Amino acid sequence: MMVHIPSRLAFLATPKCASTSVENALRPHCQFIATGFPSMTHMHVNRYNRFVRPLLKATGFPDVKTTCLFREPIDWVGSWWRYRRQDRFSGEESTKTMSFETYAQRYIEGEKLPFLPKGHQAGMFWGPEGRVVLADYIFRYEDLDLYAEFWSRKIGKTVKFGRHNVSPDMAAALSPNVEDAWRAYLATDYQIWNEVALRRDGFEDFLKDHFESA
Q: Which pTM value belongs to this model?
């Protein structure tokens, strides 16, 4: 979690969505930084609203907006599968001998295993009593170049996101039946990715509305 005070914008890092790349690029420009532990780096919107927002308000910055990246849901889980294929993992923590389809089925079954992600990507937005609490600006991970442009305009300097913690490049394919089950299981994730996250074809209008009207 990082806050750029001059632009009143906070970056909330969704796991497996270029967190390290974005953090490394934004770190020199941000004045409030909480990283180093997963619960701080990947702070959920609800936790930010409960603890960080009141602190910022008390110190004279009540109007800070939140932003994050959101990945195509199947690809998000596929990233965890690829990540666990790295040589540093072995035994029950590794997926080297497991197909993505098997991995997907184990995930849907809700098993709590060392190589599976905990919860959903949409967990970034779970609020009290299961309500969804969204970030103010959600960009698609697949449009990282647009996210860099957004931050560049906010900061007033060119921001470039490098590549860090890249998992092995392997296709994460599913049979039609399993993919249908997945899309149903990740319905909330797909609703956010399809209906909430900014689309590339709407980026120019977003910039006009956001910056020219400011």
A: 0.91
Residue count of the chain, please give it: 214
- The winner for highest mean pLDDT among 22-36, 96-110, 163-177 is 22-36
Report the domain count for the chain. 1
d(CA 9, CA 203): 18
Residue 203's domain comprises 2-212
In CATH, what number is assigned to the domain containing residue 42? 3.40.50.300
Query: Residue 199 in contact with residue 79, Cβ under 8 Å?
Result: no
Q: Are 179 and 191 in contact (CB under 8 A)?
A: no
Q: Give the pairing of strands 137-140 and 65-70.
A: parallel
pLDDT digits 0-9 by tens, 18-38? 999 999 999 999 999 999 888
Taking alpha carbons only, the member of 82, 78, 114, 111 closest to residue 96 is 82
Q: Which residues face 4 on adjacent strands?
A: 9
